[in-house]
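for the writeup, i need someone to sanity check this before i put it in the appendix. the sequnce is what the collaborator sent (i think, or maybe the updated version? ugh). structure was predicted straight from it, no edits. if anything looks off just tell me and ill rerun, i have time this weekend
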Amino acid sequence: MMRSERGPRRLYGIMLALAAVVALLDQLTKFWAVSALSETERVPVFPPLIHFRLLYNPGAAFSLGENATWVFALVAAAAVGGILYTARRVASPGWALVLGALLGGAVSHLGDRLLREPGFARGHVVDFIDYGPFVGNVADIALTCGGAALVLLSLRGVPFAKETGEEPA
């Protein structure tokens, strides 16, 4: 392998590793929430700001689009495919981390949509971290932080990929 190929491959590996950690952590915490919480209780964590409360969300944020769960499964699948395709060109550690957070969140939500009740491509996402106006999960945190970091990297002008003919970092 040529030296110039090692950087992008290493960054792609970092992205995949972070995505795996995010997806695994999200699914493990959801497993805990389903086994430890009931849909009727609200457990204080950092009152009055954060509580644990188990919800099964068929829609998007704030349960929007509850009858279009299959659409969210398609969107998550497209996001996963788009991130994997686009990330082949990543040349910045910051962008690799952003894509890893976004990929991990999208993969975990896709898994919920495909494999949870009430059925394939209609599954409900497990939410359990109650912030007051909304209830989310670890994947939501990764997606939000990844989205915010994406905006910051863009505003700072951090290049996503090397220009053609540019020397490797």
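The chain has a mean pLDDT of 90. The first helix runs from residue 3 to 36.
thx in advance!!
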